[in-house]
């Protein structure tokens, strides 16, 4: 039973993230992932976590390929890998148009090609090769100014046809979001070589079922209603267009769209959550327990404890 914890980019309470990572480390989770959006710099958070955890693998889940140069990403990955004692996984993703254009001030053009280019260049730099220069090809290309780190795994956040193909070709792991379990299984079976599949639902343990559903619904409405068009299009393309439309028009998840919560979230008391998480086991290699942003610490602690790997 391989399990991990995933923190969303909207979670900006640094003290809560540290407490969650320490607890996950203590309870035997395999990985702890910190996302990045427009709030905390996840690489700084991961550096802090490297100093306060002992055994858990730390994942940049994920860095946008638009926000940093391949050289900066390679330096960061090698540094975090050394600081953590080899416990670092580099996650990369093509991000969204809203974040790329509205935050990084970059044109969101050919995102799959950008993902391929950055992944290829970062891997080469971590292997100790010289930088590939295209904008100023006459300059002297440099190598990473610290020991190479070819052992750093690279996971890609991919959901589209092109990016999934890039994952199958270049990545060590696949870290998608908002894919139904049957779609996860289908796409994983088509990959021509072994790739670690890390995915899972947003999870809330709360004995008050109405409160648990409200937290799951708020997280779902946030992703599908106000975070651009990538997630709504992805979910709609999997036979859930009507339900996505209801969420986007109401900014909540009405009963008529309950299937969205059933597919992409797990919530309820501890026993219910444990049972429902088992349904994900066959679809993934590492079951990622996503923590919705803003949960009070008692709910986070109970969720992490209830979802912890057995034994």
UniProtKB/TrEMBL annotation:
Matches recorded under SUPFAM superfamilies: Bacterial luciferase-like (SSF51679)
Protein name, as recorded: LLM class flavin-dependent oxidoreductase
Sorted UniProt keywords: Oxidoreductase
InterPro entries cross-referenced by the UniProt entry: F420-G6PD/mer (IPR050564), Luciferase-like_dom (IPR011251), Luciferase-like_sf (IPR036661)
Residues covered by the Luciferase-like domain: 15-283
Taxonomic classification: Bacteria, Bacillati, Actinomycetota, Actinomycetes, Micromonosporales
Organism superkingdom: Bacteria
Pfam family name, one: Bac_luciferase
